[in-house]
Amino acid sequence: MPRLFLFALLLTSPLPLLAQQPVLPARTPATTPQAKPQTEKPETVASAPALTLAEAIRIGLENNYGIRLSRQDVRLAENNVTRGNAGQLPTVDGNITRSFTRNDVRQESASRPTPSEASGAKSNRLNSNLAATWTIFDGFGMFIAYDRLRTVAQSQQQLTRATAEETVADITTAYFTVVREAGKIQSFEEALRIGQQRIDLTQARADVGVGAKVEVLTARVDFNADRSALIQQQEALKTAKVNLNNLLGRSPALDFLPADSIVVSRDLGRETVTQAIRQNNPRLQQARINTQVAAYDRKLVRASRFPQIGLTGGYGYNRNVNGEAFFGTELTTNTGRQLGFNYGVVASIPIFDGFNRNRLEQNSRIAEDQSRLQLEQTQLQLEAEAEQAYAQYQNRLQLLQLEEDNILLARQNVAIALERYRLGLLTPLALREAQRTQLDAENRLLDIRFQAKQAETVLRRLSSGLVQEQP
Question: Is the dihedral of CA 232, 238, 240, 243 positive or negative?
Fold first, then answer.
């Protein structure tokens, strides 16, 4: 009788009133387990310091190991740019030799039939000098070598600049990956909130006898599926943070909250990007500089065919103490000293070296041709990469506009579906479908916005718009 009374009461009462004020009998944990409230935040979005993109780039430029190693290469290349390394300055060497001898001496001659003998005769020598050499002509090779050293340093600077640009692009992508994964966690939290409402409504309907228990179990299964997806998404967010921390050169366990959202610029033009690539791209600039280095190498080989003329000079001091001399039959010691300057001119003319210079010059021409081919290849690769990135950029902008409009429809659809479900006008399956549609739309919007930003970042990296100048 009580069940029939409740069923008659449901038929005669307004549906909205029943949906908003269900009569819920007491439930025991043994028969109906309670769902865990979803008001608490997931572990991965706990309180942590905020990190902006600008701060992340600053930290990366200071701490990233790839950039730091590349800057050390620049220092090495710049240290090599000296006139002494190019052979334009004289070289001065100091030498000193100190030697001692101890000999047994026996001396005889026709005029002295009796030999003169001595044991342990001591002598010593001191030789010291300063020698200077200075090449004054080598076919202008020394000047070519200096220009080549400067060009090599410029090439290394461009390589370091390219490393910085690419690292900043990687940091930007990694940062917005964290933003995307954190946004998906919010989407799953919203799905859990709706799922909790569905469980409460389904349980209320089952308690008053207008709903089946299977609907409650299905709602809980769907709820647990969403919780499982949330846990997996928490792992994805943690992985994204570890990757970003690695690029920033800091502890992988350091937690943070992204303070910036994904904002896509919509005003990048193809011609502007293409022109900026030709003028500013560091990889292209490095390839151009490398053609100059190859030209200097060829000139150095040609300079080796000319005569080399050098100046030499020195100052020496020599002392010889000879304790092995006889004066008559007595052993005496003689001391001699030399002190003075020496100077002269040295000239060498290459005549024949087994045709090695011909071989070296041919190889240098081949290397010069290779550098030109590498320049053309680099330019073609950059243009292809820019064309691909720009096509993706345009495509993602169109999809972004579509998904931004679609998410409004999906949210409105879920709100209507949830209200209809409260009123008993919608099946649980239809509500679940509306819920999944909204979650998919939220994730698609995050993915499309991230991909559009990623394409924009590639275009800015190619046009050297991420890092204008690096020390």
Answer: negative
Q: Give the amino acid at 133.
A: T
Supply the range of the domain harboring residue 329.
Answer: 88-137+307-349
Among 349, 378, 404, where does a domain finish? 349
- Alpha carbons 278 and 269: distance in angstroms, whole number: 15
Report the domain count for the chain.
Answer: 2
- Distance CA(194)–CA(188), nearest Å, equals 10
The dihedral region occupied by 434, where left means phi > 0, alpha psi between -120 and 50, and beta the remainder, is alpha
Summarize pLDDT for 247-298 with one digit per residue, the tens. Answer: 999 999 999 999 999 999 998 899 999 999 999 999 999 999 999 999 999 9
Distance CA 458, CA 449 (A): 14
What's 415's domain CATH number? 1.20.1600.10
Q: Residue 228 burial by CB count (10 A; 0-12/13-18/19+): exposed, middle or buried?
A: exposed
Best CA proximity match to 276, nearest among 382, 153, 426: 382
Residue 296 and residue 232 in one domain: yes
- State whether 329 and 465 are in the same domain: no
